[in-house]
């Protein structure tokens, strides 16, 4: 089974779960005055779940035959591409998201930019550190000072040391 | 109209707004040149900046400048490197790159700049004429017609973007609508489908979704499959075009501005279709000798897609500003930004907030002028951006994607969702599912349900579908839009398989 049909199967599963909620569980605690309304919060989702299921099944059972088009990347030969790098960068993004609050914006952004170029094969450390620092500091300055959205720049203990 | 023009001029010519146009065009040009970053990614990256400005006309002026800049920047990399940064400029590479290889890069860029300018300006003139007319018709619409019109728009987008695979595009549209129902609904403000997660109470963030659908997969594809970046051919000189060449491309520009604009107005078509169609039409009506030149560095072949894609960009603002229905992924993102700024585009926009409407149109003229004046002398320097090493470029693209989602919400959970959706979107791209319908469905979902609920309440049921002939007509059109391409595909397939048997 080709990837697009697997995806259709997964999406059909999501539609089923969504539809089950809309048809059977959602209306349970609807207040009586709401029930007199011609439209309930579940009406629109009910329609959507049916439409979604129909179109997912059309793809799943290939009612609409189409020629196989290979886009920018052929997923069957995914291992021939730089999959490792891509996965590591995704992991790095997750770590960045989790570290933003505890270690502060400037430190985590510098870490992200330096490690990001390191993963892609860059080894010129002084340039990497300099570029990362300038970028992180400029963005922090723009967002925090110019736009006025507070972001903690350093880890808590350093901020305390710097006096605020 | 004259009054409106003056209001627009007054707003657009304020010092701050002129700076915004110039800044937007420059940013758009720079980022648009980078292969893999299209106008959709750039605009979604710029949205947090635009929203935090708080002034809707300023924000829209900035984003429109970025949009034009991105299309122009995309043609620069198409011409110099044969690496289009934007789908809409792929056709420009057909003749632009051969010209650059013949050492006429400067001339090619000048032609691109001049035809973009002409296409954009004529497009803006047409917008000025057609938008008010369309919006006065749209004022007669009822909420049930709005509902039907949005259904037509969504169906048209599904039918046009999913080339030959309408079911996929339809499934993506429905999923966009499904995602829009997560969070507190407008009806009674009851939380729906949140699975008890507090962060989902307000629904999915639209910027997060836009980033995850477009910017992140593009960046991941750049990592997975490094594009060969060939040298741009060194020096760029000889920017002038001769009188004879100008005479040759003038009719092309005239025709393609009109054609491009009207293609841009259609939902789902947009700059990409306009540029390919423009190229094809000009090639077919050219004389025999000129036809042989196409693909080998014909100036007509470069001017046609360049004019058409800029005119189409302008045309795609018509449904956005008059009906509040975006025709393309890019205008859908613009619509999201406008809603975040508390401006609801639609027929009442011209009455309630004329300064926004007219300022945008005036800034289109200014933006086109800025692109012409600033970019022509800057071309040789702008092309230097292309030499930023990939090892630095990709982490920065990823970082800006993350920042865009973070600044809007100030919530790290949003970043995890971004990565999750980004991975899903990449998988969908591998399987050739179009992603623009998903985002358009997501953005229109709320409005679609609102109008549906309002008409249900007014008519106490679904009676509005047959009691209002206009609604019924529009819904019939929507069904035809979905069924027609499927039927035609099937007939074409049958003919193909029957063919050999008959012989």
From TrEMBL, chain A:
Q: Which domain of life is it from?
A: Bacteria
Q: Which residues, if any, are the signal sequence? A: none
Enumerate the spans annotated as DUF1468 domain. 6-151
In terms of InterPro entries, this protein maps to: DUF1468
Write out the transmembrane intervals: 6-26, 47-63, 83-104, 125-143
Which keywords does this chain's UniProt record carry? Membrane, Transmembrane, Transmembrane helix
Please give the name of this protein. Answer: Tripartite tricarboxylate transporter TctB family protein
Record the organism. Answer: Pacificibacter marinus
Automatic annotation (TrEMBL), chain B:
Check the record and name the InterPro entries matching this protein.
Answer: DUF112_TM
Keyword Protease appears in the UniProt entry: no
List UniProt keywords, sorted A-Z.
Answer: Membrane, Transmembrane, Transmembrane helix
Q: Which residues form the DUF112 domain?
A: 18-439
Q: Which domain of life is it from?
A: Bacteria
Does the UniProt entry include the keyword Membrane? yes
Membrane-crossing residue ranges in chain numbering = 12-33, 45-67, 79-97, 109-134, 146-162, 169-190, 202-224, 261-281, 325-344, 356-379, 391-408, 468-487
Q: What is this protein called?
A: Tripartite tricarboxylate transporter TctA family protein
What is the organism field in this record?
Answer: Pacificibacter marinus
What is the taxonomic lineage of the source species? Bacteria, Pseudomonadati, Pseudomonadota, Alphaproteobacteria, Rhodobacterales
């Amino acid at each position: 089974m080709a990837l697009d049909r697997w995806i259709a199967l997964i999406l059909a599963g999501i539609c089923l779960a969504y539809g089950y909620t809309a048809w059977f569980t959602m209306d349970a605690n609807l207040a009586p005055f709401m029930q007199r309304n011609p439209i309930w919060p579940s009406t629109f989702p009910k329609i959507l779940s049916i439409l979604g299921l129909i179109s997912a099944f059309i793809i799943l059972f290939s009612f609409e035959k189409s020629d196989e088009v290979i886009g920018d990347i052929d997923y069957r030969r995914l291992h021939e591409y730089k999959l490792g790098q891509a996965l590591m960068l995704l992991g790095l993004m997750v770590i960045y998201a989790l570290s933003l609050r505890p270690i502060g914006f400037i430190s985590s952004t510098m870490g992200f930019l330096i490690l990001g170029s390191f993963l892609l094969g860059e080894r010129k450390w002084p340039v990497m550190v300099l570029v990362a620092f300038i970028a992180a500091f400029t963005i922090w300055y723009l967002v925090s000072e110019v736009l006025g959205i507070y972001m903690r720049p350093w880890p808590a203990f350093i901020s305390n040391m710097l006096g605020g | 109209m004259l009054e409106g023009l003056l209001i627009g001029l007054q707003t657009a010519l304020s010092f701050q707004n002129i700076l915004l146009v110039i800044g937007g065009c420059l940013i758009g040009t720079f980022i648009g040149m980078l292969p893999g970053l299209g106008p959709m990614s750039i605009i979604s990256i710029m949205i947090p900046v635009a929203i935090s400005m708080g002034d809707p006309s300023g924000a829209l002026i900035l984003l429109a400048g970025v949009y034009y800049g991105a299309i122009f920047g995309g043609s620069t990399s198409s011409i110099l490197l044969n690496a289009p940064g934007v789908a809409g400029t792929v056709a420009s590479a057909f003749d632009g790159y051969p010209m650059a290889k013949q050492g006429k890069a400067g001339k090619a860029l000048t032609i691109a700049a001049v035809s973009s300018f002409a296409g954009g300006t004529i497009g803006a003139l047409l917008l000025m004429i057609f938008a008010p007319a369309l919006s006065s018709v749209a004022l007669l619409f009822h909420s049930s017609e709005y509902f039907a019109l949005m259904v037509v728009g969504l169906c048209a987008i599904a039918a046009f973007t999913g080339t030959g695979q309408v079911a996929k595009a339809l499934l993506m549209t429905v999923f966009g609508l499904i995602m829009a129902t997560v969070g507190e609904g407008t009806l009674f403000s009851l939380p729906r489908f949140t699975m008890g997660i507090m962060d989902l109470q307000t629904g999915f963030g639209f910027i997060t979704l836009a980033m995850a659908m477009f910017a992140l997969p593009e960046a991941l594809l750049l990592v997975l499959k490094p594009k060969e970046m060939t040298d741009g051919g060194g020096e760029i000189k000889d920017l002038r075009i001769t009188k004879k060449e100008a005479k040759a491309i003038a009719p092309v520009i005239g025709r393609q501005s009109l054609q491009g604009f009207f293609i841009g107005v259609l939902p789902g078509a947009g700059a990409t279709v306009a540029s390919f169609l423009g190229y094809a039409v000009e090639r077919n009506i050219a004389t025999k000798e000129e036809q042989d030149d196409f693909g080998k560095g014909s100036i007509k072949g470069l001017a046609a897609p360049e004019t058409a894609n800029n005119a189409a960009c302008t045309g795609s603002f018509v449904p956005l500003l008059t009906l509040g229905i975006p025709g393309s992924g890019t205008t859908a993102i613009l619509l999201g930004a406008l809603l975040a700024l508390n401006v609801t585009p639609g027929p009442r926009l011209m009455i309630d907030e004329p300064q926004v409407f007219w300022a945008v149109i005036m800034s289109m003229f200014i933006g086109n002028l800025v692109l012409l004046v600033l970019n022509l002398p800057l071309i040789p320097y702008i092309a230097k951006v292309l030499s930023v090493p990939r090892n630095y470029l990709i982490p920065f693209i990823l970082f800006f994607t993350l920042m865009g989602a973070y600044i809007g919400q100030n919530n790290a959970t949003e970043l995890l969702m971004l990565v999750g959706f980004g991975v899903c979107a990449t998988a969908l791209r591998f399987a050739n599912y179009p992603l623009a319908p998903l985002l358009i469905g997501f953005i229109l979902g709320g409005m679609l349900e609102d109008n549906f609920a309002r008409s249900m309440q007014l008519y106490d049921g679904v009676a509005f579908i047959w009691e209002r002939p206009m609604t019924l007509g529009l819904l019939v059109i929507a069904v035809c839009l979905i069924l027609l391409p499927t039927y035609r595909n099937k007939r074409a397939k049958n003919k193909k398989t029957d063919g050999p048997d008959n012989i």
